[in-house]
Amino acid sequence: MAPAMLSDEVKKERILKAFRLQETPEVPFSIEIGPFHGAVAEFYNDPDAELAWSRDHREKRRGVYDYGMDNVKPNVGIGVVAAAFGCEVTVNDEADPWIKPLIREENVGAVRDLAVPDPVENPVFRKVWDRVEYLEAHAHMPLRSVNIPSPLVTASLIWDYTSFIEGLMLYPEEAHILLEKITEATIGFIREQFRRIKNLFSISHEMWHVPREGGIRISDDTAALLSPGLYREFGVRYNSMIADAFGGVVVHSCGDVRNVVEAMMETRNLKGLDFTIPQNPDWDVIRRAAAGKTALYLRHFYWDHGGGGKTDLAAYSKRILDYFGRAGLFIQTSTETPEEAVALGDELHRILST
Predict the structure, then answer these.
(1) Cα of 256 vs its chain's centroid, Å
(2) Where are the alpha helices (DSSP H) in the chain?
(3) How many of the other CB atoms lie within 10 Å of CB of 262?
(4) How many CB atoms lie within 10 A of CB 201?
(5) What domains can you pick out in the chain, each with its CATH number?
């Protein structure tokens, strides 16, 4: 027999308890439906298309038992802060807008000339605020946060990616100058976002309801490429400044985080970690560093598994539960069709309940 659907109030109550590492009747989980939904041209250029996608996704999820709730994604991509610094943006049909870097090895000193963008008047940010205002006026659903890039990610967009990674060792002074400016801009952008979004669903741009006491969720995908020492100096330092400004931070990183997860745990006011778990072959280092110590969001969308065949998503979720334990655990997954999502939700309820 299918489980009874939970009210949004019950979902939020259980999510908050899990976020605080308290005992809950089941591990919270969410199931999205369909392929990657990014800031491609169709959605980036047309807020009505974004609204239509959100309404369609809401209807597809009718009958799915999980901890998801109706909401709208602002969907402006991960390069918004870099664009506000003056990087050229190319909207495309494949991924979030491409960002053309301003800094390369031959002009590293130009980081000193970059001006911190005004969070209200900068034209790139103003475009975001116009979109937020439009979505709030027409969606009749709460808004997620914009995808907030970590200072490292924004720096790797402003400064040519490979040159920037090398520059952390070759030009550390210039790297810090850039990261300090980016951190200031990012904090201003987040503050203005919180001021403008009247009906905030989550501090994350993902489908999850991440409680406001988490501060802000940031995408820190550059972290996986760094050594522990480099990440402490150029990642933890600036993520901690953001956490200090908002009372906490949830740090996401795609990729294999085995070299940096212990350093991530040193972030001041850290409230959670968020990983794409199939990309991590060494689960033990994550368990030792983080399991039961902070909220742990572990994602495995159906396309994260690769290999051409279909992964048993319920069985994989059980592996996650058995390995990492219940305390603070959240599982995020997806299916190709609504029918698969309904069946998976029922099975995950059976597996993840106490």
Answers:
(1) 16
(2) 8-19, 41-44, 47-60, 80-84, 123-139, 151-158, 161-170, 172-196, 228-231, 237-246, 261-264, 283-290, 313-324, 338-352
(3) 17
(4) 20
(5) 8-352 (3.20.20.210)
In whole angstroms, what is the distance from residue 328 CA to residue 321 CA? 11
User: From the DSSP assignment, how many helices (H) and strands (E) are in the chain?
Assistant: 14, 11
Residue 179: half-sphere exposure toward Cβ, Cα within 13 Å: 26
The distance from CA 209 to its chain's CA centroid, rounded to whole angstroms, is 12
Q: Residue 140, Cβ neighbours under 10 Å: how many? A: 11
Q: Return all residues near 182 (Cβ < 8 A) that are at least 6 apart.
A: 81, 85, 151, 154, 155, 158, 238
Instruction: Describe the crossing of helices 338-352 and 313-324 by its angle, rounded to 10 degrees.
Output: 30
Whole-prediction pTM: 0.97
The first and second tokens of residue 320, run together, are 């996650």
Using CA atoms, how far apart are residues 341 and 32, in angstroms rounded to an integer? 8
Question: Cα 147 vs. chain centroid, distance in angstroms?
Answer: 6
Query: How far is C-alpha 264 from the geometric centre of its chain's CA atoms?
Result: 15
- d(C-alpha 158, C-alpha 149), whole Å: 12
Per-residue pLDDT of the chain (354 residues; tens, 9 = 90+): 789 999 999 999 999 999 999 999 999 999 999 999 999 999 999 999 999 999 999 999 999 999 999 999 999 999 999 999 999 999 999 999 999 999 999 999 999 999 999 999 999 999 999 999 999 999 999 999 999 999 999 999 999 999 999 999 999 999 999 999 999 999 999 999 999 999 999 999 999 999 999 999 999 999 999 999 999 999 999 999 999 999 999 999 999 999 999 999 999 999 999 999 999 999 999 999 999 999 999 999 999 998 767 899 999 999 999 999 999 999 999 999 999 999 999 999 999 998
